[in-house]
Design brief:
The chain is about 40% helix and about 15% strand. It is α/β, with parallel strands linked by helices. It is globular. Bound molecules: nicotinamide-adenine-dinucleotide and UDP-4-deoxy-4-formamido-beta-L-arabinopyranose. The site of UDP-4-deoxy-4-formamido-beta-L-arabinopyranose has 18 residues, from helix 7 and strand 8.
């Protein structure tokens, strides 16, 4: 297939481009590079030995999007392009609705005009809001506590409505739990700008000596060690699931959403201890206040992906930390280089 990957230069998108090319698909990256590096397409080529085509443009630039469809005539779209900072979505909600919601509506319109009927969408476990219990399956109630989460809920609904209106459209909303790690080559990974919001990139920077300590947001949750529990999933496992979902989309048409997680929860202290172990570096931490909006635990029931895609996560927390650490060192953000 010829696959248009919006946001394909970003953290998750770049790993999916690698797996798509490895599986023999053609890839067109459509990315504004607002949150990614212009060198990423070349690094994807170095890993795979095949090059993606790259279009540098904003999703909201209708002429550029139209031109991309008319030039490349993609068979399918995997749609990652979005803004993803929860805090920023609270201070700048209109940008989030514009990029994440309006951008997706423009994309769906373009797909319809060019008779492109296969879509995989990046949703998030954030749509489960404050989960009533874990593991969380796809039937659990959905809600949102911030504008970013609302954009994911709205877009899921828009895509589901578009499917009902046009039976030729095959689409699925993939709900990621906590993507971490990096490609084993050390050539692509997550590069947060400024202070990382997420735990693993923060811990990696502490291990590298770039930050003195990590704040553990609460140790009084009703979890085994009192700290928050999450379902961390290796970004390369996520990538494999996207290729499988894309290739089987018509058979998944009855589904509205699918979880992508490991089905295992790990606490903040477990993540810190594992990272310290694999990096061989001490990781100082201090217990801090709970972070507003955080939930005690959030981990997936991944059975639907197993039964319908034949997919299950292969990499454990240790491998996720090893690959995050290799990326941290190799990307020039640590004291050593591999
Ligand atoms: P990322 O920021 O690394 O990648 C997003 C890419 O989209 C970037 O390359 C960015 O330059 C591009 N982009 C942003 N706005 C654009 C626009 N208007 N036009 C064109 N390109 C644009 O983020 P990521 O972590 O790879 O996330 C990818 C998707 O997965 C997003 O939709 C995100 O909401 C979703 N998601 C991420 C996580 C996570 O923890 N990383 C979890 C669940 C869901
Ligand atoms: C994990 C755990 C924190 C940082 C977020 C989004 C979610 C999805 C994935 C996009 C929690 C604790 C964190 C720190 C800490 N993104 N923590 N100290 O919040 O589960 O999920 O990313 O869709 O929508 O909310 O991930 O990595 O921020 O936090 O103690 O410095 O680590 O409290 O228990 P989260 P996270």
């Amino acid at each position: 297939m010829r696959v248009l990957v919006t946001g394909g230069a970003g953290y998750i998108g770049s790993h999916v481009c690698v797996e798509l090319l490895n599986a023999g698909h053609e890839v067109i990256i459509f990315d504004s590079f607002i949150n990614s590096d212009l060198g990423v397409p070349d690094r994807i080529s170095s890993i795979v030995g095949k090059s993606p085509l790259t279009v540098k443009a904003d999703l909201r630039d209708r002429a550029a999007l139209d031109d991309c469809f008319s030039t490349h005539r993609p068979d399918a779209v995997i749609h990652f392009a979005a803004l993803k900072s929860i805090g920023e979505s609270v201070t700048n909600p209109l940008s989030y609705y514009d990029v994440n919601v309006v951008g997706t509506i423009d994309l769906l319109g373009c797909m319809k005009r060019y008779d492109c009927n296969l879509l995989v969408f990046s949703s998030s476990a954030t749509v489960y809001g404050q989960p009533e219990s874990c593991p969380i399956d796809e039937q659990a109630p959905v809600s949102a506590t911030n504008p970013y989460g609302r954009t994911k809920l709205f877009v899921e609904q828009i895509i589901n409505d578009a499917k009902v209106a046009d039976p030729r459209l095959f689409a699925i909303n993939l709900r990621y739990f906590n993507p971490v790690g990096a490609h084993q080559s050390g050539l692509i990974g997550e590069s947060p700008s400024g202070t990382p919001n997420n735990l693993v990139p923060f811990v990696a920077q502490v291990a590298a000596g770039l930050r003195p300590r990590v704040s553990v947001f609460g140790d009084d949750y009703a979890t085994p060690d009192g700290t928050g529990v999450r379902d961390y999933i290796h970004v390369s496992d996520l990538a494999t699931a996207h290729v499988l979902a894309l290739e089987q989309l018509p058979q998944l048409s009855d589904l509205q959403a699918m979880n992508l997680g490991t089905g295992r929860g790990h606490s903040v202290l477990e993540v810190i201890a594992t990272f310290a172990d694999i990096s061989g570096r001490p990781i100082e931490y201090q217990i801090a206040q709970r972070r507003p909006g955080d939930v005690a635990e959030c981990w997936a029931d991944p059975m639907l992906a197993l039964t319908r895609l034949g997919w299950r996560a292969r990499f454990d927390l240790e491998q996720m930390c090893k690959d995050a650490w290799r990326w941290q060192l190799g990307s020039g953000n640590g004291e050593e280089r591999t």
